[in-house]
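Observation: inputs received (chain + fe (ii) ion).
Thought: call the complex predictor directly.
Action: predict_structure
Action Input:
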Amino acid sequence: MSLPFSRLIQWDPVYSVHVPSIDGQHRVLVSKIRELQEAMLEGRGGEVVRPLFAALNKYTKYHFEYEEQLLKKHGYAELEAHHQQHASLIAQLHELESKYAGGQLSAGAPVLQFLRTWLLDHIGEHDKQYSTFLRAQGVL
Ligand SMILES: [Fe+2]
Ligand SMILES: [Fe+2]
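Observation:
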């Protein structure tokens, strides 16, 4: 099996939003996607995709709610837009899961590529936007 990516997916300080509790949750999400990558490299991607979707659905819900509660508590002006982003991400995850369950997608590189972009683009583009705000509020 060819390598789906030349590098393993891993946490990088560039993704930090400088709020330790949130960084910790983002690390958990990154590690779940990394588990899939490692399983694929060992030729057992098909075994872990279903449990991975279940774990991602559960943990993503927890994480998004945590973020939104924190943003709400501190009066973040862009909360509604951020909530919409989260809702869109959940819908995308469900769509991917349905395609996989329906046999339209195999447990290969496309799933991994999607999840990697799905998570890291949101952190890099949208979570980073509240980072300065929360730090100015003294959130650690
Ligand atoms: Fe996040
Ligand atoms: Fe977020």
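Thought: report the result.
Final Answer: The pocket of fe (ii) ion (ligand 1) is lined by residues 26, 63, 67, 123, 127 (CB under 6 Å). Residues 71 and 77 are 9 Å apart (CA to CA).
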